[in-house]
Design brief:
- The chain has 22 helices and no strands.
- It is mainly α and 477 residues long.
- It has a domain of 308 residues: Amino acid/polyamine transporter I.
- The radius of gyration is 22 Å and the shape is globular.
- The two termini are 39 Å apart.
Length: 477
C-alpha cells in the first residue's frame, strides 16, 4: 500500500526561500547557494532567455547581413547557423546547479583563484559592459524615435536623459536580482511575442522573398561575408559564458538536459525570428536606419507599440548583462555589495553608450565590436565547455568559494596554467585570423576571410583537452 505520509522535503523544494523573492533585493552575490535555498524548475529558464533575445540588436544584425551583400536566404541561413551556438550557452548553464555558484566562481576551476580574477576583469566584466553599452545604444535609438513621435525634439540633452532613464530601469531589475528576473520575464516574453507577431505580418506583406543583390557576391568575397556574418550572429551566444548565473538557484537534482535545453531553446527561437525579420525587412526598406525604415511598413497606430517593445526587449537583455557584470566585479576581488557593483557597471556602460551614439557611427561600432569581442569570448566559451565535459559537470561549490592558498583551486601561484595557456593561445591564434578593425596575416592570406571564431575556439578547446586533464583529475569530486 502506498504511503500517505506527505513528503515534506519535496514540499520544501517547491517553496521559494524568503531570501530569493521578487520584492526583495537579492542577498546572494558570488557566494555559494546552500541546497536548502535552491528552488524552481528548468523550464523557468525558457522565458528568461526568450525575453532577453527579442531585442533591437538582433533586428539590426539581421538587416546588416543583407546590407553586407547577402541574398535573403543566405542571410537567414547565417542567422540560423550563428544562433546554433546557443547550445554551448545551454551546456554552460548546467554547471550552475552542479556547483550552486555563478560562472564567475566556477571558472576558478579553469584558471585558478588569481588567474580567474584576470579572466573576470576582462572576459567577464569588460565584455559584459561592452554588450550593455551596445544594447543600450540600440534601445536608445528606438526610444529617440518614440520621443520624436511624442512631439519632443531629440536634442543632445534629451538623448542623454533618455539613455539615463532606460539604464535606470534596467539596473533596477538587476539590483533586485534573480527572483524578480524569473517573475518578470514570462509576461515580458508574452508581450514581446505579441508585438513581434504584428511586426512579422507587416514585414512579410512587403518583403521580397526572392531578393538577391544587384551584384551577387561570389567566390572568396562571398565566403568572407558569410563567415563574418556568422561571427556577428554567434557573438551573442558566445558572450554568455555567464549562463550559470541564472540557473544556480535550481536544485542540484535538476536535469542537466532540461537546463541545457530550456536555456538554448529560449534564446535560439526568438533570436532566429527577430534576426530573420531584420533580413526580410531589409529586402523592402533601407535598414541602415532601422527604426525609421520600419515605420514605413508598420501600421501607424502600431509604431509606438513597436518602439516600446524594442526598448522593453533591450532592457530585458541588459538586466541579465548588468547582473552578470556585477558578479564579475565581485569575483575580481573587490569587496563590495552586488548592488553597488551593478550600479557602477551601469555608469560605465552609459558613458560608453553616449560615445557610441553621439561620437561614432553606430552600425560600424556594432559590427566591429561584435566581431572583435569573439576573439576573446569564443576561446573563453570553448575552455569552459571543455572543462564541463572533462569533469562530467561535477563541481564542489564550497571548495570553489575558498580563495585562500589552501584552496584546491589555487593550483600554482593561484593560476591553473593549463587553462590560462589554452585561453591565451586560443586568443592569439584567433587574433591572427581577424579581418575587422585590422587584417591579420591569416585573413590576408585567405583573401579577407575571417576565421578568428572557429580557429580560436578549436585551438583553445583542443589544447585544454590535452593539458587540463591532470588539473581536472586533481580537483574533481
Amino acid at each position: 500500500m502506498a504511503s500517505t505520509i506527505p513528503d515534506h522535503g519535496a514540499a520544501r523544494a517547491e517553496v521559494t526561500p524568503p531570501a530569493d523573492r521578487p520584492g526583495r533585493i537579492e542577498a546572494h552575490g558570488i557566494d555559494h547557494i546552500p541546497d536548502g535555498e535552491r528552488h524552481g524548475h528548468p523550464r523557468e529558464l525558457f522565458s528568461v532567455w526568450a525575453a532577453a533575445n527579442v531585442n533591437y540588436l538582433s533586428l539590426v544584425i539581421g538587416g546588416a547581413l543583407v546590407l553586407m551583400g547577402l541574398s535573403l536566404w543566405q542571410a537567414v541561413a547565417v542567422t540560423v547557423v550563428g544562433n546554433l551556438f546557443w547550445m554551448l550557452t545551454g551546456l554552460l548553464a548546467t554547471s550552475g546547479p552542479a556547483a550552486g555558484a555563478p560562472s564567475e566562481v566556477i571558472t576558478r576551476a579553469l584558471y585558478g583563484v588569481i588567474g580567474n580574477r584576470v579572466n573576470n576583469a576582462i572576459g567577464g566584466w569588460l565584455v559584459s559592459v561592452c554588450y550593455f553599452a551596445l544594447n543600450l545604444a540600440a534601445a536608445a535609438t528606438a526610444a529617440f524615435a518614440l520621443v520624436e513621435k511624442a512631439g519632443v525634439t531629440a536634442t543632445t540633452p534629451v538623448k542623454v536623459a533618455v539613455i539615463v532613464v532606460i539604464a535606470a530601469l534596467t539596473l533596477a531589475i538587476s539590483v533586485y536580482g534573480h527572483a524578480l528576473i524569473i517573475k518578470l520575464y514570462l509576461p515580458i516574453t508574452l508581450a514581446l511575442a505579441g508585438a513581434f507577431t504584428v511586426v512579422a505580418l507587416a514585414v512579410f506583406r512587403h518583403a521580397d522573398f526572392s531578393y538577391t543583390p544587384a551584384e551577387p557576391l561570389t567566390g572568396v568575397d562571398l565566403w568572407a561575408v558569410l563567415v563574418a556574418g556568422t561571427t556577428m550572429v554567434a557573438s551573442g551566444p558566445l558572450s554568455y559564458t555567464t549562463s550559470a548565473d541564472f540557473s544556480r538557484y535550481l536544485p542540484r537534482t535538476a536535469s542537466p538536459k532540461a537546463i541545457a535545453g530550456w536555456t538554448a531553446l529560449g534564446a535560439f527561437v526568438p533570436s532566429i525570428v527577430v534576426g530573420s525579420l531584420g533580413a526580410f525587412a531589409a529586402t523592402a526598406v533601407d535598414m541602415t536606419d532601422p527604426q525609421n525604415a520600419l515605420q514605413e511598413i508598420l501600421p501607424g497606430w502600431f509604431t509606438p507599440v513597436f518602439l516600446l517593445a524594442l526598448v522593453l526587449g533591450t532592457i530585458s537583455i541588459n538586466a541579465l548583462t548588468a547582473y552578470s557584470a556585477g558578479l564579475a566585479l565581485q569575483a575580481v576581488g573587490l569587496r563590495i555589495r552586488r548592488t553597488v557593483s551593478v550600479l557602477f557597471d551601469g555608469t560605465v556602460a552609459v558613458a560608453a553608450t553616449l560615445y557610441g551614439l553621439l561620437v561614432s557611427n553606430f552600425l560600424d561600432t556594432v559590427s566591429n565590436a561584435l566581431q572583435v569581442i569573439v576573439v576573446l569570448s569564443g576561446p573563453l566559451m570553448a575552455v569552459y565547455a571543455t572543462d564541463i565535459v572533462l569533469r562530467r559537470n561535477r563541481y564542489d561549490g564550497r571548495a570553489l568559494s575558498d580563495e585562500t592558498p589552501g584552496s584546491p583551486f589555487w593550483f600554482t601561484g593561484g593560476v591553473n596554467r593549463a587553462g590560462a595557456l589554452s585561453l591565451l593561445v586560443g586568443v592569439a591564434t584567433a587574433a591572427l585570423c581577424v579581418n575587422t578593425v585590422y587584417t591579420g596575416p591569416v585573413a590576408s592570406a585567405l583573401g579577407g576571410i575571417d576565421l578568428s571564431m572557429p580557429v580560436g575556439m578549436i585551438v583553445a578547446a583542443g589544447l585544454y583537452a590535452l593539458l587540463g586533464r591532470r588539473a581536472v583529475a586533481a580537483t574533481s569530486l
